[in-house]
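[step 3/7] fold_predict: job queued, chain A
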Amino acid sequence: MMNFYMTPGSCSTGIHILLEELEQIFSAHIVNLPAGDNQKPEFLAINPKGTIPVLVTDDGLVLTEFQAIAWWLALQFPKAKLLPESNNDKAQALDLMSYIVGTMHLQGFTRIFTTERYMQRESDREAVEAQGRIIVKKGFAYISQQLDKTKGYLFEQFSVTDAALFYVEFWAKRIDLPMPESCHKHLQLMQQRPVVQRVLAEEGYRI
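[step 4/7] structure written:
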């Protein structure tokens, strides 16, 4: 059985969605980040980075990055078609997913949610948060260009990249951060998926 380490409402929600979409049996373990569970010895023994999400596969492989987990799931269960068909589209899917996670989340939203990490003094707070909002705004503008082409999911059908985009859209919605109309429509489309509804309910959220 796969073991999945997650924090409700975090980036791990995207992986949670993918696991449920695959209808695979897995054991979910809640990591309370505010309480510091990610720095406890028992968790660091699994993931020395102290980050989530973490997926431990049936054969003991430990994956600790969103993109790696999503990619492994797509390759391990090809019948689910979690990646586009052509190699060009697969590469673009990885490109978009890396941008969403690496730039919008790790450079943008972290400045909004964990502003103090980037501050040298209290007077920096406003500027740091504003910088985060600029990064996220530019990110959504870039992503919307792809959504404007497809008029739905990022590619012809639901893929791993949509799971990544969903969690940053979900964050933006919850803090009233402006998004292009195509991103609002993508968020609504994702929320119509029964699996997404179930995952959000399991994590304690209402649509």
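[step 5/7] annotate
The chain has a mean pLDDT of 97.
The first strand starts at residue 2 and ends at 6.
exit 0
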